[in-house]
Amino acid sequence: xxxxISFRINRSLEKIIKRCSEEKKKExxxxxRDLINNGSIYLAIKGYAKGKYSxxxxxxxxxxxLSEFMDLIMDLGIKSKISKEDLLEGYExxxxxx
Length: 98
Description:
Elements: H1 11-24, H2 28-49, H3 55-62, H4 66-75, H5 84-97
Helix pairs in contact: 2-3, 3-4
């Protein structure tokens, strides 16, 4: 079981949590965990799309495996920040190992 953390929320957030909990038929604590997890993914995607994070850093911050994060950004239509030259250099480096 995880660690218990308590924090205060304003009435507006309380209403959002209550509405979403009722809509999804989930316990409020489960819903809050989902919202935090989805929020971290959103912030990582946004940071990657703006060039603030590398793809590896964004995957780490979102707590997703790199391949899953890459699939997610492709599904969202976010273009890769990797240049053609970087890909070709990586390919040449791989050829040295095989």
